[in-house]
């Protein structure tokens, strides 16, 4: 796995100019945009960049050669998940720092403790997105997976729209109020469990996809 | 080793190799007890397959010119051993000459003599 | 070292059905026309593809189940794929060092210089020859006991080809247990390097012979109609109609040399073997 990390990090560093650009953009946006935009934007960037290493592997039958190296498909998949998680987490930390720094400059006083739940809430969303995107890219390749993701988001949007129509805004509000009354800790734990479960399922699916890939 | 191979010749490569090594041994250019290069080394030098070199070495060993010590290498045998092999060959030739003379004395033709040899050899195999 | 027993792999319009045994310490050549099944055979050996039936084994283990330790012993050079072309030589050096415990860093660096591979360019900007040299080098620098090379010298000029072949010969000399399987279209490379040759055609092995036997005992008789009519067919493997009469492929050149001293007999190399056995001799 060390070799795979070495490869992916070097590939990412090749695009130094792009990375610097994105970072500069991030800092600018962090200071000019109000609110939590940057807390979502940076981790999402980190995630998509690290996942893009999959497309490098895929080009020119690269998988075929990779699988002759002393690794197996499980290790390959593991490394991708670890890479993605680390990349997302690191960018999230960077985003949090930027967020507080910019807030300090703007409002010069903030109570960090209150914001923690909100800040942390971005992580599960990212992990969930990763859980969907990795197996999709592995199965369909970089190009097709964009279409697939578009379709998924489209379907989700339609479903939530229909859901709202069918159940009615009133009832949704009732449900939300009920949710707020449930202990925060319970919500927290169930979210974490749900995300872990999703990640585990995603991992298993990815392993299956790689094993069955025709090289 | 200074071996020159002719790839365009009709003479098989391993035969050319055997002949050249043999003549070097006979001319004492390769001394008794001297080690021949390893199969792979010679194959690399001459740019031929290692199997070809091995066949040449095996042939030389059969004829008594070299001895292979497993794990150590191939060495030029003492010349008296070579002479011994040559002597044995000579003895066989003499035995044949004797048998053929006897056969002719009894009145057998060349074809009949050869047929007898064939039958005997077939019986053996 | 490599063993394929009744391995069958079926694709839409093609079926591979072969058996092969490659012992330790051999250099074996695999030849055949494009589409004959060379790459599929190599993929089966490496475990990249699963056989529909039969067994493919390397080091005694089924190819699809090769362990990481066993893969460390295999050096691979594939025809059209390798490391991502966004990487450069020092990237690859560091990656190989982390992948293979026996990676020979100094040897790799020295060879890169000797072969004039540019340190600063990414692989995308390499010439075809440089890419090929790099692929071969990557396979040979971690002391693997088995090298599998698919068209290693394709696209190289004669000087570069000889450099590579010499590297392979040196590689084998260092350790007698090392084995190499090479597939190639360049017959002269194989004739000077390989111990034995497998000829594959339409998914089947149609010939397996020692190289020196091919070079020494195989030949082509060129006969006119009259000579063909009275020709002893015992050792004729294949005949092809020609404008002058017939071209007859034999594996007992000497027999015909002695019996018919007037007949024109040409040496048979690997190219002639392929052409005659697969039916298209000119």
Quick tags:
heterotrimer; A: 215 residues; mainly alpha; globular; C: 282 residues; alpha/beta; Rossmann fold; six-stranded mixed β-sheet; four-stranded antiparallel β-sheet; 11 helices; 35% helix; 29% strand
Can you put this structure into words, describing what you see?
The complex is a heterotrimer of chains A (about 220), B (about 120) and C (about 280). Chain A is mainly α and about 220 residues long. Chain A has one domain. Chain A is about 85% helix and about 0% strand. Chain A contains 10 helices and no strands. Chain A has helices at about 1-15, 15-30, 35-50, 55-60, 60-65, 75-105, 110-120, 120-165, 170-180, 185-210. The longest helix of chain A has about 45 residues, at about 120-165. Chain A starts with a helix and ends with a helix. Chain B folds into 2 domains: about 15-75, Orthogonal Bundle (Arc Repressor Mutant, subunit A); about 80-125. Chain C contains 11 helices and 14 strands. The interface of A and C includes residues 10 and 72 of A.
């Amino acid at each position: 796995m060390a070799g795979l990390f070495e490869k992916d990090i070097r590939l990412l560093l090749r695009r130094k100019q792009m990375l610097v650009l994105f970072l500069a953009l991030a800092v600018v946006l962090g200071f000019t945009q109000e609110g939590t935009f940057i807390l979502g934007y940076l981790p999402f960037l980190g995630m998509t960049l690290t996942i893009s290493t999959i497309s490098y592997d895929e080009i020119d039958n690269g998988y075929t050669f990779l699988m002759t190296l002393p690794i197996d498909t499980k290790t390959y998949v593991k490394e991708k998940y670890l890479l993605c998680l680390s990349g997302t987490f690191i960018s999230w930390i960077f985003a949090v720092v930027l967020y507080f720094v910019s807030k300090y400059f703007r409002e010069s006083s903030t109570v960090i403790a209150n914001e923690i739940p909100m800040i942390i809430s971005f992580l599960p969303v990212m992990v969930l997105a990763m859980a969907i995107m990795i197996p999709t890219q592995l199965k369909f390749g970089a190009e097709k997976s964009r279409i697939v993701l578009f379709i998924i988001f489209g379907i989700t949007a339609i479903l939530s729209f229909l859901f709202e129509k069918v159940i009615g805004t009133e009832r949704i509000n009732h449900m939300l109020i009920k949710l707020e009354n449930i202990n925060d800790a319970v919500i927290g734990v169930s979210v974490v469990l749900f995300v872990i479960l999703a990640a585990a399922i995603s991992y298993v699916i990815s392993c299956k996809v790689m094993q069955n890939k025709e090289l | 080793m200074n071996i020159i191979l002719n790839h365009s010749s009709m003479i098989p490569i391993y035969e050319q190799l055997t002949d050249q090594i043999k003549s070097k041994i006979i001319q004492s250019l390769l001394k008794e007890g001297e080690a021949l290069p390893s199969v792979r080394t010679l194959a690399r030098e001459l740019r031929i397959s290692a199997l070809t070199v091995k066949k040449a070495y095996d042939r030389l060993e059969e004829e008594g010119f070299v001895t292979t010590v497993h794990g150590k290498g191939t060495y030029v045998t003492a010349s008296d051993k070579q002479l011994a092999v040559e002597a044995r060959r000579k003895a066989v030739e003499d035995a044949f000459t004797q048998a053929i003379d006897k056969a002719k004395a009894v009145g057998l033709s060349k074809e009949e003599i050869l047929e007898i040899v064939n039958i005997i050899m077939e019986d053996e195999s | 070292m490599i063993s394929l027993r009744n391995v069958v792999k079926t694709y839409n319009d093609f079926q591979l059905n072969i058996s092969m045994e490659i012992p330790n310490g051999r250099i074996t050549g695999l030849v055949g026309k494009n589409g004959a099944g060379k790459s599929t055979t190599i993929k089966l050996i490496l475990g990249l593809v699963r056989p529909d039936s039969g067994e493919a084994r390397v080091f005694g283990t089924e190819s699809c189940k090769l362990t990481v330790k066993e893969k460390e012993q295999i050096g691979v050079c594939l025809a059209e794929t390798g490391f991502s072309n966004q990487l450069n030589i020092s990237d690859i050096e560091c990656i190989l060092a982390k992948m293979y415990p026996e990676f020979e860093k100094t040897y790799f660096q020295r060879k890169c210089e000797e072969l004039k591979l540019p340190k600063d360019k990414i692989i995308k900007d390499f010439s075809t020859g440089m890419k090929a040299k790099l692929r071969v080098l990557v396979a040979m620098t971690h002391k693997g006991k088995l090298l599998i090379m698919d068209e290693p010298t394709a696209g190289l000029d004669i000087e570069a080809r000889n450099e590579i072949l010499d590297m392979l010969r040196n590689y084998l000399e260092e350790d007698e247990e090392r084995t190499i399987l090479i597939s190639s279209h360049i017959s002269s490379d194989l004739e000077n390097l390989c111990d034995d040759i497998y000829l594959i055609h339409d998914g089947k092995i149609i010939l397996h012979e020692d190289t020196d036997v091919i070079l020494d005992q195989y030949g082509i008789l060129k006969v006119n109609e009259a000579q063909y009519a009275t020709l002893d067919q015992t050792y004729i493997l294949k005949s092809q109609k020609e404008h002058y009469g017939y071209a007859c492929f034999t594996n007992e050149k000497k027999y015909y040399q002695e019996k018919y001293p007037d007949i024109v007999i040409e040496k048979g190399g690997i190219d002639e073997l392929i052409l005659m056995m697969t039916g298209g001799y000119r």
